[in-house]
Design a protein that fits this description.
This protein is mostly beta strands. The chain is built from no helices and 11 strands. Helices cover 0% and strands 50% of the residues.
Length: 128
C-alpha cells in the first residue's frame, strides 16, 4: 500500500511563507505525476500545482502562479510546495496526490480523478 504523508502546514500571517512536504512510502512506488490540491470550507477541492515526474514539467493554478513552487527530491521520494506571499484566501486544507498509472501528457494532470493516491491533508491558515 502506498502512503502519502504531508507535513508543514500551520498558521502564518499574510505575506508570510510556508513549505509543505509530501513523503511517499510503502511498497515499490513509481509515480508518473504528483500534485497539490486544496479545499476550503464549503468549497470543492481544487488543483494548486502539479509536476510530471518524467521530465519535471510543472504547472500552476492562476491563483498561485508566481507565488508557489512545486519541486521534488527524487532520493527522498518527496515533493514540496513552497508557498510565498501567502494571502488569507490561501487558507485551506492542502492535499498531496500521486498518480501511478500511465500518463503521457506534457502538462501535469489537474483533475481530482486523475490521481490514484491521496494524503490525509494539512491545514494552512493565513491570517490578515
Amino acid at each position: 500500500q502506498v502512503q502519502l504523508v504531508e507535513s508543514g502546514g500551520g498558521l502564518v500571517q499574510a505575506g508570510g511563507s510556508l513549505r509543505l512536504s509530501c513523503a511517499a512510502s510503502g511498497r515499490t512506488f513509481s509515480s508518473t505525476a504528483m500534485g497539490w490540491f486544496r479545499q476550503a470550507p464549503g468549497k470543492e477541492r481544487e488543483f494548486v500545482a502539479g509536476l510530471v515526474w518524467r521530465g519535471g514539467t510543472t504547472y500552476y493554478a492562476d491563483s498561485v502562479k508566481g507565488r508557489f513552487t512545486i519541486f521534488r527530491d527524487n532520493a527522498k521520494n518527496t515533493v514540496y510546495l513552497q508557498m510565498n506571499s501567502l494571502k488569507p484566501e490561501d487558507t485551506a486544507v492542502y492535499y498531496c496526490a500521486a498518480r501511478s498509472s500511465y500518463y503521457s501528457g506534457v502538462r501535469p494532470p489537474t483533475g481530482v480523478r486523475q490521481y490514484d493516491y491521496w494524503g490525509q491533508g494539512t491545514q494552512v491558515t493565513v491570517s490578515s
